[in-house]
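2024-03-11 09:14:02 DEBUG pipeline.ingest accepted 1 chain
2024-03-11 09:14:02 DEBUG pipeline.ingest length=52
2024-03-11 09:14:03 DEBUG pipeline.predict start
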Amino acid sequence: MEIKYLKQMHNANIGDVKTVTPFEANILIKTGVAKPHKPTRKKDNETQPSAE
């Protein structure tokens, strides 16, 4: 599971995204250290250059 850190930790800075086990993620989320991270997908028209 991917999480985004909200606080400075010994192995991560604020804003870092890391993959951890669901057990670890649950603990970090419940203690307010991290939040679940869901990658955003760009729309198809944003990833392709315009054809002019």
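2024-03-11 09:14:41 DEBUG pipeline.report The chain has two helices and three strands.
2024-03-11 09:14:41 DEBUG pipeline.predict end
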